[in-house]
Amino acid sequence: MESLKNPRKLHAVNVVLILVLAFFSAKSVYGRNYQHRLKNRHHHHHMRGYIPYSGVRCRAHTASLTDFGGVGDGKTSNTKAFQTAIDHLAQYGSHGGGSLLYVPPGKYLTGSFNLTSHFTLFLHRNAVLLATQDENEWPVIEPLPSYGRGRDADGGRYISLIFGTNLTDVIITGNNGTIDGQGQSWWDKFRKGQLKITRPYLIELMFSKNIQISNLTLINSPSWNVHPIYSSNIIIQGITILAPTRSPNTDGINPDSCINTRIEDCYIVSGDDCIAVKSGWDQYGIAFAMPTRQLVIRRLTCISPTSAVIALGSEMSGGIQDVRAEDILAIDSESGVRIKTAVGRGAYVKDIYVRRFTMKTMKWVFWMTGNYGSHPDDKWDRYAIPIIQNINYRDMVAENVTMAGRLEGITGDPFTGICISNVTIGMANVPKKYIWNCTNVEGISSGVTPQPCGALPVQGEKVCDFPQEKLPIEFVKLHSCFYRANYM
Questions:
Q1: Mean pLDDT, rounded, for 2-22
Q2: How confident is the model at residue 484 (pLDDT cuts 50, 70, 90)?
Q3: Which residues of 328-342 are buried (b: 16+ CB within 10 A; e: fewer)?
Q4: Among 42, 109, 257, 372, which is most exposed with the fewest C-beta within 10 angstroms?
Q5: How confident is the model at residue 408 (pLDDT cuts 50, 70, 90)?
Q6: Residue 20: burial class (beta carbons within 10 Å; 0-12, 13-18, 19+)
Q7: What gap in Å lies between CA 481 and CA 466, rounded to an integer?
Q8: Sign of the C-alpha dihedral, residues 129, 133, 137, 140?
Q9: Percentage of the chain with pLDDT > 90?
């Protein structure tokens, strides 16, 4: 994927991908024995014992968790089995395309485990990973350098259930297998103020590249669900995320200081933001200086009664740029695309493009705030003023809305370049007294009903921008791969 950063190499890269796929087909690298030959791929796609999956890369070397003592009874700890299996498969490196660990049907109780490079973790549709509630199986690691502290408490944080750092070519997938964070006890401790260490996430990959997370169901995470950070070339596809709508901080997918990311075809029910785009917190994020940019979000369905469908910030101190969101359905959510920042954040949120957004029962369609004032400590910079500019919304429909827009910039440093076009908002039977509230913002509008505030004057038939050229990650294709399960 990394070579796709240069568009001039796209044709050559596509040729290479075709040759690689042809090589895999010729060698029939689909089963437990990588020399096994399949004469008819379509026939074997339906053949008993062959399980299909989609991957950026197919794997030559495969093993089952049960080969390493895995027990799917929902009671036996499988933490050691997972780590032993992954460490064993790591010996193959990138040879023949790398390795795959298969998790068969069953309920596998486990603590945290670390992934390796050139590796696929594959969950059968009837496989469930149960996150242990034994805190001894959750190692504590240092705070993220761009945050300076944990999100729930000062100091360290519990490592995520599935974790990796400094990796290349990592796939976490399945045919809709389940990862259950068993988060209730964590939520209870958070609400009671009993946490001294920040809660774990379900999946976190750091300082990594060429990542695919796809075709899984994630439920009841202790906190955030999917958190790629300081990483690049990422595909997150076909994920279902479910959490109680009042569960604390159960964000769906949080790309954080990441470059070249594609999130698509996901269904999220959350107690917090469905997608939260981040890049570090106040002075720590400013110093780390790693933005999130080149992000595409498409074909997303979100239910989040207390939060946003897509949030930009509030931790955005490394910067957020070039975010493209399209074909989004929001149901019973607090706000559509919400920009959250404050004095002390610094950096910028700019070049944001949103189109074809359908919203049903919303508190706000548009919400921006420069007063989201949480800080990691008392050392934040009072002169670090964020820049919010070139924000584009178009082709949107909403119904049963309490307030059309709440746009609050920063006194003396307004949010600029806001464009809203071809938007129809149906208000609720009892809307707010003021359906638009705009302060310290500048922009234009066109074809918006009800008509926006004076800070967004009508400008003819203006159509807000949405880039036509694709991002590099959009050219990456997934291949049809197969695993041969010997238990069938």
A1: 40
A2: confident
A3: bbbbbbbbbbbbbbb
A4: 42
A5: very high
A6: middle
A7: 35
A8: positive
A9: 87
For residue 186, which phi and psi values (nearest 5 degrees)?
-70, -40
**What are the angstrom distances between the C-alpha of 454 and each of 28, 218, 329, 430, 440?**
64, 44, 28, 23, 11
Q: What percent of the chain has pLDDT over 70?
A: 90
Enter the tokens of residue 339.
């920009």
Sign of the alpha-carbon torsion through 297, 259, 476, 169: negative
Question: Which is nearest to 205 in space by CA: 121, 101, 85, 300?
Answer: 121
Which residue out of 251, 272, 282, 322 is catalytically annotated?
272
Express each pLDDT in 316-358 by its tens digit: 999 999 999 999 999 999 999 999 999 999 999 999 999 999 9
Instruction: For residue 421, say if its preceding peptide bond is cis, omega within 30 degrees of 0.
Output: no
Query: Which alpha helices (H) appear in 123-259, and where do they start and end?
Result: 184-191
In this prediction the pTM is 0.90
Kindly report the backbone phi and psi dihedral angles of residue 140, in degrees, each rounded to the nearest multiple of 5, phi listed first. -100, 130
pLDDT of residue 423: 98
CA distances from 5 to 54, 212, 232, 259, 471 (A): 23, 17, 10, 10, 9
CB 260 within 8 Å of CB 238: no
Residue pair 449/423 in contact (Cβ under 8 Å)? The answer is: yes
How far apart are the C-alpha atoms of 301 and 366, rounded to whole Å? 18
CB atoms inside a 10 Å sphere around CB 133 = 16
DSSP character string of 437-482: EEESEEEEEEEEES---TTS-B-TT-------SPPGGGG--PEEEE
140-141 vs 157-158, strand pairing mode: antiparallel
Q: What is the pLDDT of residues 202-227, one digit of tens each?
A: 999 999 999 999 999 999 999 999 99
Clarify whether 272 is annotated catalytic. Answer: yes
Strands 308-312 and 292-303: unpaired
Q: Both tokens of residue 313?
A: 């910030």
142 secondary structure, DSSP code: P
Nearest to 41 by CA among 20, 15, 19, 22: 22
Query: Is pLDDT of 371 > 80?
Result: yes
| Phi, then psi, of 453 in degrees rounded to 5 | -70, 170
Is residue 291 reached through a cis peptide bond, with omega within 30 degrees of 0 on the bond before it?
Answer: no
